[in-house]
Each structure stands twice: as C-alpha cells, then as structure tokens.
C-alpha cells in the first residue's frame, strides 16, 4: 500500500538587494508579500533585523568574493516563524545596478510555502510538480515504486488527495482488454495530506475495480482527455451511493476533482485522480494545463516501467518453467535446493541447478550461471539444462561433460556472444568418491562431519563459451559419510557493497563445526541471511547435498580372471548373492545378463575383470574392464553370424530395463539395470 501524509510544502524564492552593511535597497514581489504587510517598510531595513545571524554570512561573502549559505529563522506576518535557507551572492563591479548605487550583494532566500497557500501560485506548483522531483522519480523501473513516487509529488504539491489507477490489461498481459462490465482498473497508489485513516480503508491500494459507463472516470478512460468535476452539493454523496462506500460522502464533500489520463502508444493506460478539498482553491483551466503536462511526462515513465515489468514477468515465468521440478538422487543422499530470484531492480538471471540420479547409485550435482539477464539468459539456461541431462545420460566424466557444454556455448555464440559458469560433481554412493570439475565457477564447499569446512581446490578453467588454452580437469576426492557438499552461484557471496572474499568467508562460517548435523533447509536459510534486503541482489541458486554411501550389504564386488571359466564363476556368485537378497525371481535373467557381459569383456578387453552388483532403486549389474572401446549392437542379416558377433548385447537389450557404457580412468564399465518388483 502507498499513502502520503507528507506535510512539507513547496518552497518560495525571495530576493533582496543590499549594500555592504546589509541595508535593503531592493526587493522582489515575493519578498514584499512574505516579509512585510507593507512593502515600503522593507526599504532601509537591515537584513540582520529580519534574519537574526545573517550579518556573518554577508560579511564572509563580501570578504571572500564568493557566495555563502546559512539556515536562519525568519518572522513573517502571516505564517509566523519559518525556516529559511539564505544564500548571499556578492556583486562584482561590473554587475552593479545603476538604479541602486551602493548595491553590494543579493540575498536569495528560500522559505516554505504555507500549506494553505500552496495551490495559489502557479509558478510554485509548476516548479514543484515538473522540475524538482519528477526527473528523480522517473529513474525507477519498478511500477509499484514509481506509482508511490508519482503520488508523493502530486500530494501535497498539486492536490490534497489522489490516486493512480492503471488498466489491468496493461499491467498483466493475460488480462482481457475489457470485461463484461467495462475495463478493469487497479489502484496502484493513493496519497492524502491529513491523518485520516478512512482514506486507506475507502480507497485500498491494489484494489481492482470497474467504473460504470457515464461516470467521470469511465469518460476519462474512453476519451483520453482530462475531466474536471466539482463535487459540491450532493455530488460526493451521489458518488458514495453509486460506489456503496459511505465514507466517500465526507471525504470528498465539496471537493474539486480532476482526472488526468495517462496516454502512451499502447492507448490510455489509466489516469490520475486529483482532489482538492473545500478549504483550497478549486482546479481551473491553468491547473488542467499543468496537470496534463505532468501526466504526459509521467506516462513515459509508466510505459517504460510497464514494459519492463512485463518483460521481467515473462523472463521469470520462462526461467521458473525451465528450472527442475524435482531432484533425484540415490536413497542415502539427501539433496535440497533453494532458488531466489533477483531483486525487483535487477532483471531475471540465468542461474540453474540439477540433481540427476545415475545408474549404479551415482548422482550428478550441477549448478550453473549464465551471464547476463532477461529472456535471453533464461533461454540459454534452458538449453544448457537440456544439454546437461543428455550428457549425464551418456555418463561422461565431469570434465568431458563441461567440454561438450563449452562447445555448445561456442556454437550459440556464433550468432550472439554467450558464456556461462558451471560446477559439475558426480558422487558414487558405493565407493564414496566424488569427481569434480569447474568451468569458471566458484569453488564447491565441502563440510565434513566434525571437521572444518573447505573450498575444494578445483583447477580453474575459463567459463563456458569463452575459449582459451586452459583445459577443464576432473579432480577426485573420497568423502566420509555425512559430508555436506554445497554448490552456489555468485549472487550469494557478492554484491555491490560487499567484496566476494567477505562473502566466501561468511559462507565458511555458516558451515562451521556442527553444520553437518543441521537440517539442510535450515542451512539454506542461514546461507541466505542478510541477502534478502539487498536492493541490487542478483538471482541465487543453491544446491546442498548430505553425502552418504549405500549400506554395505546392498552391493557386492568380485575380481575375475579373463578366462572362459570366469563366466561360470560369475553366474554362481550372482546366484548366491541374489538368494541372500531374496531376489529369486531375478536369478535366471541376471545370470544370463552377467554371462553375456563377462563373455564380452573376456573376448574384447582382456586383463582382469571386475563384476559389481548394486541394489539401489533397481538391480544394476556392472562389468569393469581395461578396454576403452565402446561395445555396440551389430545388425546382421545372417542369423548364424549374429550368434558369433553381437548376440550378447541383443540379449542384454531384451532382458534389461536399460543398459549403457561409461568410461573410467582405467577403461570402461558396461552396465545393465533391471526393475525390482
């Protein structure tokens, strides 16, 4: 809600000419009206008589040859004691006035205009309305802040009370231009110069309403022209009855009402409602002229803020639709995320996060940040998310996945420059090993249980899409169960007022001793403390995981020699293990799958072979060998040839829910997964 109870008024400028002793030789019309009941009484008086303490700045100005300013009190016949800003300008020899010999200085005096007189002088109204505050207010692109600022100018400088109403269809693109009863309007802000709380209750900010045809408000909206009405007699009472709001009769009794349309290339956006009560001068043609000049200038600001708000809403909707709706991970790994859009003064950014469960009790944890803001950044973020899902499905090592993303960003940059940062972590919940790679991103934070938090020393690499000679490198770490892994974007640790090193130090303190035992939601909230109030905050993406291995009896690993007898031994090992797991219905198909995978490894790889069974989500069978050649299904027309070559993977493809291949530092892994009943 916006309301204005400001009691300050506009300023009036008075000018006095004096000799070197401070005796008044000249004065303007404003000075005569404010400082004396009889203008002739001003001549010959000393400045120090009316402004006690004025002699000192006068002498200093004359001595230094430069202007001097002081805040002094002045007694006025009509308004009592006023605070005045007095600036003394010494006159140079060439600037002396022949009509006033001895003129040594000019005193420019700024005094507040009494509330009762603030609508009397058109020049004062024009200056306060158009010159003083409007340029400063127009710099904001936040529609709500702009509305409040515009009302703070209108009240008290132009009217006693007022409101700004905009058409819903111009605020929200999804709203129809006109409803069955007429155009829907939203009251963006109100203003009033007294302490009567009935204004807020009667004209609530944010209210949507429709004005009936034939009313002054509907006429202003239809015509795009100013509408002036006097609410004397029963005028206010009739409005109160039509609107079913009894307080309107007292609030607007005897008021003068002026509606100022806000017009842009898109049409009539809305209007200002301005009212002066019966104690002040009613609006006239000159007020209409000044008011329309204000409304025309304000329409430029409103249109800019309206377009920005729509574009920001579009980008925010697009970004939210592209962010993941759910995170997947192995059952012992607890994952939590937080996404905080940038402040209303910052456009939507391209921060994103992912947690993708991989076969064999593994998970890919990713956080990235597309440079720039707006719809383009959100679209690029969506492309990267799609690509990272594809690359995760190919089970590429983190460094290779980021290299593929870098190639994509360079391709996108051929039309328009793009770059992004990204941190990519793969955690194996069987071995407890983490593989980490980063492209220009801030280092992941690791907080072991009972230990001090550290930033992982990941070798730096250029951001995606920038290019450069530095390769992206994968680092491997083994972590103990209960360790926290925290990935984040730079909006969390850096802003205009705080150095990034201070932000990183604050984050380390958040994840200090005891943090590993705290709930993840509580840690996310603690990391965001102090961030919400930043008016220039960038958007923030955070991904936190509590890492833990699956139970030891949920996986089994065996070393096998590369000889035909190993196939029979592998079948026996699998049969016994599945019996211990009470998975008798999977014994036969799993034995067939293991036979084909082990046979394939013996025939094409050689060397030692590792067989691993993992019971996590499904039943995964993995065969590790030392060859980096990728097996593929071969299609032959001759059935006998197929028995000799490629039959094994046909069997795997038929029996398994899914299968795949991933590279390791020592060769590759061929795996297949079956669904658990």
Question: Counting H and I runs of at least 4 residues, what is the number of helices?
Answer: 20
Roughly how much helix do the residues carry, as a percent range?
A: 25-40%
Q: Shape from CA axes?
A: elongated
Largest sheet, in brief, is: 6 strands, antiparallel
Evaluate the radius of gyration. Answer: 38 Å
Helix vs. strand class: alpha+beta
Strand content: 25-35%
Could you give the count of β-strands? 26
User: What is the CA–CA distance across the termini?
Assistant: 57 Å
Q: Mean pLDDT, nearest integer?
A: 84
What does this structure look like?
The chain is of the alpha+beta class and 677 residues long. Helix content is 33%, strand content 27%.
Summarize the structure.
It is built from 20 helices and 26 strands. It has 677 residues and is of the alpha+beta class.
From the structure above, extract its key features.
26 strands, six-stranded antiparallel β-sheet, alpha+beta, 677 residues, 20 helices
Secondary-structure topology with pairs:
Elements lengths: L10 E8 L5 E4 L1 H7 L11 H4 L4 H10 L3 E9 L3 E11 L14 E8 L9 H11 L1 H4 L5 H15 L3 E7 H4 L13 E8 L5 H5 L5 E2 L6 H8 L3 E4 L4 H9 L3 H5 L4 E9 L2 E10 L8 H38 L11 E7 L9 E9 L3 E9 L4 H19 L4 H15 L7 E9 L4 E7 L5 E3 L6 E2 L19 E4 L4 E6 L11 H11 L9 H9 L11 E8 L7 E6 L4 H16 L6 H18 L4 E8 L1 E8 L13 H6 L2 H9 L2 E7 L2 E9 L2
Antiparallel strand pairs: 1-2, 1-5, 3-4, 4-5, 6-7, 6-11, 7-8, 9-10, 10-11, 12-21, 13-14, 14-15, 15-16, 16-19, 17-18, 17-20, 20-21, 22-23, 23-24, 24-26, 25-26
Helix pairs in contact: 4-12, 6-12, 12-13, 13-14, 17-18, 18-20
């Amino acid at each position: 809600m916006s309301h204005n109870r400001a009691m300050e008024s506009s300023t009036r400028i008075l000018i006095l000419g004096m000799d070197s002793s401070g005796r008044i030789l000249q004065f303007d019309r404003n000075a005569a009206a404010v400082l004396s009941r009889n203008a002739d009484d001003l001549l010959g008086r000393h400045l120090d008589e009316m402004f006690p303490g004025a002699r000192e700045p006068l002498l200093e100005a004359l001595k230094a040859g430069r202007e001097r300013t002081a805040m002094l009190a002045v007694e006025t016949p009509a308004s009592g004691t006023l605070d005045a800003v007095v600036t003394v300008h010494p006159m140079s020899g060439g600037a002396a006035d022949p009509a006033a010999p001895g003129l040594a200085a000019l005193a420019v005096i700024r005094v507040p205009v009494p509330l009762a007189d603030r609508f009397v002088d058109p020049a004062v109204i024009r200056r306060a309305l158009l010159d003083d505050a409007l340029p400063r207010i127009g710099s904001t692109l936040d529609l709500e802040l702009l509305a409040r600022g515009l009302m703070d100018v209108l009240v008290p400088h132009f009217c006693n009370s007022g409101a700004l109403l905009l058409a819903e269809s111009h605020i929200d693109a999804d709203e129809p231009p006109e409803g069955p009863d007429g155009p829907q309007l939203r009251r963006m802000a109100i203003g009033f110069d007294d302490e009567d709380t009935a204004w807020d209750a009667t004209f609530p900010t944010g209210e949507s309403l429709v004005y009936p045809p034939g009313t002054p408000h509907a006429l202003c909206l239809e015509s795009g022209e100013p509408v002036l009405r006097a609410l004397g007699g029963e005028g206010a009472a009739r409005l109160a009855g039509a609107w079913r709001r009894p307080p309107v009769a007292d609030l607007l009794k005897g008021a003068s009402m002026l509606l100022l349309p806000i017009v842009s290339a898109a049409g009539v956006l809305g209007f200002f409602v301005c009212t002066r009560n019966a104690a002040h001068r009613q609006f006239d043609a000159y007020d209409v002229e000044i008011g329309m000049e204000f409304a025309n200038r304000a329409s430029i600001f409103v249109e800019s803020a309206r377009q920005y708000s729509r574009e920001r809403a579009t980008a925010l909707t697009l970004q939210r639709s592209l962010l993941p709706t759910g995170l997947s991970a192995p059952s012992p790994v607890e994952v939590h995320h937080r996404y905080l859009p940038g402040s209303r003064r910052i456009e939507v950014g391209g921060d994103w996060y992912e947690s993708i469960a991989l076969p064999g009790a593994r998970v890919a944890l990713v956080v990235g940040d597309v440079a720039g803001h707006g719809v383009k950044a959100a679209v690029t973020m969506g492309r990267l998310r799609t690509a990272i899902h594809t690359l995760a499905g190919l089970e590429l090592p983190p460094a290779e996945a980021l290299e593929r993303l870098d190639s994509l960003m360079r391709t996108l940059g051929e039309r328009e420059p793009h770059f992004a940062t990204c941190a990519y972590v793969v955690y194996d919940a069987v071995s407890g090993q983490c593989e980490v790679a980063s492209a220009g991103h801030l280092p992941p934070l690791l907080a072991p249980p009972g230990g001090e938090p550290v930033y992982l020393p990941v070798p730096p690499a250029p951001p995606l899409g920038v290019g450069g000679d530095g390769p992206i490198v994968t680092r491997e770490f083994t972590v103990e169960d209960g360790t926290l892994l925290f990935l984040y974007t730079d909006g969390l640790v850096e802003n205009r007022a705080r150095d990034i090193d201070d932000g990183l130090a604050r984050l380390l303190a958040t994840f200090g001793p005891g943090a590993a035992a705290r709930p993840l939601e509580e840690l996310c909230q603690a990391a965001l403390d102090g961030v919400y109030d930043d008016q220039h905050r960038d958007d923030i993406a955070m991904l936190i995981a509590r890492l833990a291995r699956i139970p030891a009896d949920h996986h089994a690993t065996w070393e096998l020699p590369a000889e035909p007898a190993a196939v029979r031994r592998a079948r026996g090992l699998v049969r016994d293990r599945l019996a211990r797991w009470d998975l008798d219905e999977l014994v036969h198909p799993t034995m067939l799958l293991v036979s084909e995978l082990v046979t394939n490894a013996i025939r094409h790889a050689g060397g030692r072979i590792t067989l691993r069974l993992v019971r996590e989500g499904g039943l995964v069978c993995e065969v590790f060998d030392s060859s980096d050649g990728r097996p593929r299904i071969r299609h032959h027309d001759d059935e006998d040839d197929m028995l000799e070559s490629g039959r094994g993977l046909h069997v795997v493809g038929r029996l398994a829910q899914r299968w795949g291949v991933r590279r390791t530092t020592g060769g590759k892994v061929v795996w297949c997964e079956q669904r658990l009943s």
